[in-house]
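Weekly structure sync, notes
Attendees: PL (lead), two postdocs, one rotation student
Agenda item 3: pending single-chain targets
PL asked that the sequence for the first pending target be pasted directly into the notes so everyone works from the same version. It is reproduced below exactly as submitted, 314 residues in total.
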Amino acid sequence: MSQAVRIRAGYLLAVAALLLAPQFFYPVLVMKVLCFALFACAFNLLLGYAGLLSFGHAAFFGGAAYVAGYALKSWHVPALVGLLLGTLAAAALGWLFGRLAIRRQGIYFAMITLALAQMVYFICLQVPYTGGEDGLQGVPRGSLFGLVDLADDRNLYYVVAALCALGFWIIERAIHSPFGQVLKAIRENEPRAISLGYDVERYKLLAFVLSAALTGLAGATKTLVFSFASLTDAEWHTSGEVVLMTLVGGLGTVYGPAVGAGVIVTLQDQLADKVGSLVSVIMGCIFVLCVLAFRRGIVGELQALYRSATGNRY
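Predicted structure, written out during the meeting:
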C-alpha cells in the first residue's frame, strides 16, 4: 500500500470516527476533547515546528473565550460571528505578544510569554465585563443560520467537529507548505536560515499569530460548548496542560498532540470524581513517565516502531 493511499485511508477513518462518535460517547465530552485537541495542535505548530516554547498560550485560549462569550451574551451576535470575533481577538493578541517576544530565544522567550499571559489573566480578573472570579456565565448557544438549534448537543457537536476539522486542515497545510519547511529550518539551525536570506523574525511572527488564532478558535468554541468562560481558561495551569498534551501525544508530529489531548482530557474526566485533587498528581506522574520512557510521545513511538518493523527510515 502506497503512502498516499495510507494517508487517504487515515483521513476516511478519522472522518468516520468524527461522524460516529456521538453514537457511542457523551457528545459534550467529545466536543471538549476536540477543542483541546485543536488547542494542542496549534501549540505544537509553534513548539514542534518553529521551536518556540510559549508558556502563555492560555492567554489566547482564555482571551478568545471571554470575547466570544461576551459577544454572544451581550451583543446577541450569531454563533459563528461570536467565534470569529474570539478568533480575531486571539490573533491580534498573538501579534502583540509576538512583536514583544520573538526577538528573544529559549527560556527568555518562554518567560516573556508567561509574564504577558499573567497580565491578561489579571485583566480578566479585574474588568467588570468578565464576571471576575465567577466567570462569564449563561452564554447562549444560539442557532446556525437561524435554522439549526445549537442548544441540542448533537447539533452543536457536528458544528464543533467541522470547525475543529477546518483548524486541523489549516495546521496540516501550513506544516507541509514551503512556510512549514522554513519553520523547520529555523528550528534546526536559525543562523543558517538567516544566512540563506530568510526573514526569520517575520516567519516566527507569522507562526505565532497563526498558532494564537487557532488557539483562540479552540477557546471560543469551548465557551460555546459549555456556555461559560472562566478564569481557568486564562490561567497558567492551562498553558502547562497543553505542554503536557503535546509531549504525551508526540511533539513535532502532525496529530500526536490531538491524541495527547484525548488521553489527558479523558483521564481528567474519568478520575475527577474518583480521586479528586489527586488528578494533578497523576497528571504529573504521566508527564514524568513520558519524559523518561516515551520521549517521542505516543504517536512518535508508534511511528518509530512502524519504521523499525518495515525498514522505512521516513
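Discussion points:
- The first helix runs from residue 3 to 24.
- The mean pLDDT is 88.
Action: rotation student to compare against the earlier draft before next sync.
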